[in-house]
Amino acid sequence: MTTPPIRKYLSTVTGDVKKTFGSVSGRASGSASNSTSGRASDTASGRASGSGADGPRITPPAPAALAAKVRTLAPSMTRSMQRVAEAVAHDPAGCAALTVTGLAELTGTSEATVVRTARLLGYPGYRDLRLALAGLAAQQQSGRAPAITTDIAVDDPIADVVAKLAYDEQQTLADTAAGLDTAQLGAAVTALAAARRTDVYGIGASGLVAQDLTQKLLRIGLIAHAHSDPHLAVTNAVQLRAGDVAVAITHSGSTGDVIEPLRVAFEHGATTVAITGRPDGPVAQYADHVLTTSTARESELRPAAMSSRTSQLLVVDCLFVGVAQRTYETAAPALAASYEALAHRHRSGPR
CA dihedral defined by 83, 88, 89, 90, rounded to 10 degrees? Predict the structure, then answer.
């Protein structure tokens, strides 16, 4: 009988929510102060809210980030909490006018559930959530609501399909950027920049993203390997040591063929990174750093793999640019050399 390893990191993204999409500067330092405190003893709700009698002080999400947080966290909520979250996201003006008792009655839940939901979304209490809802309602009234939806029908004209997909991709990127923990991102960049070797694990659509990351790292002179074969992934993970990095990419956070090699790398001392839409999933048990992607809605004509790949690629690009910045003196010449090596393949005309 084996004893499971001590969890080194469980994402606290929801306790340090980013205020607006695109406001990257200055967030990493604010996140870093809370990124390592109290993870081991946090309960599920305490981790999510980052609040408590003796817990660290948190900054509530800006109103514009509320809908993004609901989309990201809904899959990990209980059904009763989902009803509360969906209600406040769909009708912020109506819910802002309700007391905690009124919202509990509207959603068929309890006052305690309403308060827990508010905390899970990053607010110290229901009063703070009501203020955010009022602010969000004011923003919606002053701005123009989207003219399209993301639901694609079988008989939709192709122009509508293009418009709906473009809008949904844009929303996915915005949600991912709003929820990305830049302190954890910075730590992952530091590890990758100094790594002797990097192994990346991904299956299916996530395997394509794994290949994208390794190709980027190779272009700037770093040693990186992508593994989509689970047996090969494990046999390579056994060779990793301290100073190496293993990256697991899994939207669900529960893909066994990705978790197993990450576990092996974790146990052999490598720095481990998980890129996932479920920071509370099993993959986080073996991850030093968790980078959360958007959890988008899945439909019959648009499987989750499409939107998850979009958000994963954004995180991969952020990692790559961060590593290139840290290693610029060697990365720039290596990138230039790779361009030169391939230049003849892009020249037109007879040879």
Answer: 80
Judge whether 189 and 322 are in contact, CB under 8 Å: yes
Whether pTM > 0.85 for this model: the answer is: no
> 211: which 2 tokens?
């290949």
Q: Which residue reads 């490598």 in tokens?
A: 270
Quote the CA–CA distance of 112 and 168 in Å, as a whole number.
33
For residues 185 and 291, the answer to whether their CB atoms sit within 8 Å is yes
The larger pLDDT score, comparing residue 169 to residue 150, is at: 169
pLDDT tens-place string over residues 256-308: 999 999 999 999 999 999 999 989 899 999 999 999 998 655 554 555 557 78
d(CA 234, CA 227): 9
d(CA 133, CA 147): 22
Q: In whole angstroms, what is the distance from residue 322 CA to residue 316 CA? A: 10
pLDDT at 166 over 90: no
Task: Report the C-alpha gap between 195 and 159 in whole angstroms.
Answer: 46
DSSP state of 229: S
β-bridge partners, 291? 275
| Complete DSSP assignment for 194-219 | H-S-EEEEE-THHHHHHHHHHHHHHH
Q: In angstroms, rounded to a whole number, what is the distance separating the alpha carbons of residues 172 and 295? A: 8
Backbone angles phi, psi at 227, to 5 degrees: -130, 120
Residue 265 near residue 244, CB atoms below 8 Å = yes
Percent of the chain with pLDDT over 70: 72
pLDDT for the residue numbered 136: 78
